[in-house]
Structures are given as C-alpha cells and as structure tokens.
Design brief:
Layout: H1 4-23, E1 44-46, E2 53-55, E3 64-69, H2 74-89, E4 93-99, H3 103-113, E5 119-123, H4 127-132, E6 139-143, E7 149-154, H5 159-171
Parallel strand pairs: 3-4, 4-5
Antiparallel strand pairs: 1-2, 3-6, 6-7
Length: 172
C-alpha cells in the first residue's frame, strides 16, 4: 500500500512529460480548419478604400489569397513585404480582410507600406472572420476558382510559404 502513491506519482509525471514532449514537434501554424474543402462563407461588406459593396460572390471564378490583417497586428507588419512581393509578381490576386481595425488607421497603414490587395474587405466587428474560423491576425486562406477553401495558414507568411504552398497549389 505504501508503494501506490509514489508509483502513481511517477506514472502521472511520465505521462505529463510525454504529452509535453510530443507537442514540441507540432507546427503551431497548422491549425486544422473545418472549412477546408468547403465553400467560403457568405459575406457582404464594403471595400476599405473605395467604400463600394463587396460580397463573396464577386470573388468567384478566381484562384486567390485571402489575408486577414490589421494595422495593430505585429505579425501583419512582418509578412507585409512578402505580400508586396507576391503582388508585384502579378500571378495571383490577394484580397485583404481588415480585421477589427479602425478605418483611418488601416488606410494610413497601407499608404505607408504599400497596398498589395485587390480589395480590402472591412470587418469592423470580426463577424466575417468568425465565419471563416479565424483565431486572430494574421491568417491566410488559399481559395480556388469555385470559392472553395483549399488551405489555411495561421501566422505571418513568408517567401518560403509562397514557394512551397501557394505556387504548387496554383499549378494543380
């Protein structure tokens, strides 16, 4: 009876160590999305720059990137130059989803850094982002011509992401 408590403690300790250790090799940007393989959620909003209405229906027929960003987002500033490079390559359209941001802050942010987006969808309350299953900014979705989400990335993207993920998906 005296050996049960130390044995149980050791087993629990080893179990905790195992779960912590196995979690170290997981990529935190690969958060599974239940929307992969499904059509993008319906939305209706306005474009940040022009103020014109924009819906998910207007994006059909194009293979594109949807990038969730905000002017207050540090990770968004890290990935912005990479988005500008993708924009300059002119191989794929990038649409922005401006997440829980103030209009003037977002416009000024783009004026200072450049605007890689074909359109910027305004999402002041985060309702559109919720429908996409967004955890926070930045997040990037790859969407095919049929409006189906084929890939989701959490966190800043870089040139490696473009070369290893976007280019191969575009060629399929």
């Amino acid at each position: 009876m005296n050996f049960r408590l130390p044995t149980l403690s050791i087993v629990l300790f080893l179990g905790i160590i195992y779960f912590l250790y196995t979690g170290l090799d997981k990529d935190p940007t690969l958060i599974p999305s239940p929307l992969i393989g499904k059509t993008v959620p319906d939305f209706k909003s306005t474009d940040l720059i022009s103020g014109e209405d924009i819906t998910n229906k207007e994006l059909l027929g194009k293979f594109y990137i949807l990038n969730v960003w905000a002017s207050w987002c540090y990770g968004c500033s890290l990935e912005h130059n990479h988005l500008m490079n993708i924009y300059k390559n002119n191989e794929i359209d990038i649409f922005g989803l401006n997440y829980k941001d103030e209009k003037n802050s977002a416009i000024n942010w783009l004026k200072e850094r450049g605007n890689p987006y074909k359109n910027v969808i305004v999402d002041v309350n985060g309702n559109i982002a919720i429908d996409y299953g967004v955890y926070g900014a930045p997040e990037t979705f790859i969407i095919n011509e049929d409006g189906v989400i084929i890939y989701k990335h959490v966190g800043p993207i870089d040139q490696s992401f473009y070369n290893k993920i976007i280019l191969p998906l575009m060629k399929k």
